[in-house]
Design goal:
Elements lengths: L6 E7 L7 E7 L13 H7 E5 L12 E6 L2 E6 L8 E6 L15 E6 L10 E5 L4 E3 L4 E6 L12 E5 L4 E2 L9 E2 L5 E5 L2 H4 L4 H6 L8 E6 L15 E8 L12 E3 L9 E4 L6 H6 L1 E5 L7 E6 L4 E6 L6 E8 L31 E8 L1
Length: about 375
């Protein structure tokens, strides 16, 4: 008859949430656990460990969690829920128990995958700026997804390809993750130190973008949503780098087209250049002459160079003002307050007022 195994290794998942999982080793004799009665976490890990399997050759560390002895069971509960779609491997090494027994010290291993829910893979809905020409000192992208995405160590999923030179641009991104609260919008920065002329990184590695050359921002198909589903298809945004933009936005050049009284036609503001997508939503508002804010919807057009505001209720005749926060920036980080790259050797030329906000008056007739 086959010899009965002294240990049994298994995964046990919570019935309501399979991400909440524990690893259990059952022994045929409770005395096998004597050496672990006063063990610390390091000793426990030598006996039982859980690791996420890497898609590359990278060796990942054992997961942290809590160990507990219950009669004939050794249990390990991970500190964090497991991720759907990932593959996990548990390893039990009875040799680390140093048992005085003739039973074979055969290492046991078990793998576990939490199935993906029945949902669609993530999609990139939009990438801003939406235009296909960006200044050579462009700073950041806003990437919007259909569902919340996995966070942490995301930069392996991004690359910048120089189509003119036929090669990847080395180290283009600032490794700081800036997410919206719902996990569906990422702000992806080019490294500012490489976009400022004369700064160390700019001198050592050169500028990220060169005017006149064509590029692609690429997003890997392996990047997954919180559900565990990977997108499955690469996303590319093609654009051409044009001359650097070192001028501040000039609000006095903006053109307002006022709608008629009694309608819900939009107020249209021609900005004269593409400005920052997120700040155009947060830094512009419409108020009455008394400072009461008008509720409504903001829309952008023509590569974020046109700002539209549609009120929730019909316009009434009277005086209004478009209030603009002076932190509003163009694509190169030049704000109404100051240019992004300041030459300290020159006397600053301040053409725009420095304050929290500026206003553009208009009238509804």
């Amino acid at each position: 008859m086959p010899q009965e195994e002294p240990f049994h290794l298994a995964f046990e998942a919570d019935a309501k949430d399979p991400r909440l999982c524990r690893v259990v080793v059952t022994a045929e004799n409770v005395r096998f656990w004597v050496s672990l009665i006063d063990a610390d976490e390091t000793q426990f890990q030598r006996v039982l460990s859980l690791k996420r399997e890497s898609q590359s050759d990278q060796k990942l560390p054992a997961m942290l969690g809590n160990y507990q002895l219950k009669d004939d069971r050794l249990e390990f509960k991970p500190a964090f829920p497991l991720v759907r779609g990932n593959r996990y491997q548990a390893t039990f090494d009875p040799a680390a128990l140093k048992l005085a027994t003739e039973k074979p010290d055969r290492r046991l291993q078990a793998t576990h995958v939490i199935p993906l829910p029945d949902s669609k893979p993530p999609r990139v809905l939009s990438i801003y700026p939406s235009g296909n020409q960006l200044p050579a000192n462009h700073l950041k992208f806003y990437i919007q997804f259909s569902v919340p995405m996995q966070q942490g160590d995301i930069f392996e999923h991004f690359s910048l390809f120089n189509k003119t030179q036929g090669q990847l641009v080395p180290r283009p991104f600032r490794h700081t993750e800036l997410w919206s609260r719902d996990g569906k919008q990422l702000t992806l920065w080019f490294h500012p130190g490489r976009q400022k002329t004369g700064v160390n990184l700019n001198v050592e590695l050169g500028a990220i973008l060169n005017a006149g050359q064509d590029y692609e921002l690429r997003i890997s198909p392996q990047w997954a949503a919180l559900s565990g589903h990977a997108s499955g298809s690469e996303v590319r945004k093609a654009f051409k780098a044009v001359a650097m933009d070192e001028r501040q936005p000039e609000i006095n050049d903006w053109k307002l087209n006022s709608p008629a009284e009694g309608t819900r036609a939009p107020l249209i503001c021609q900005l004269g250049e593409s400005l920052d997508f997120a700040l155009l939503h947060s830094q512009l508002s419409v108020q009455t002459a008394n400072g009461d804010q008008i509720a409504g919807k903001i829309e952008l057009a023509k590569a974020e160079s046109v700002w539209k505001f549609t009120p929730d209720t019909a316009w009434q005749s009277g005086a209004y003002q478009l209030v603009v926060g002076t932190v509003l920036e163009d694509l190169a980080g030049n704000s109404l307050q100051q240019p992004f790259a300041v030459d300290l050797s020159k006397q600053p030329e301040v053409s725009n007022p420095v304050g929290d906000s500026v206003t553009l008056p208009f009238e509804i007739k």
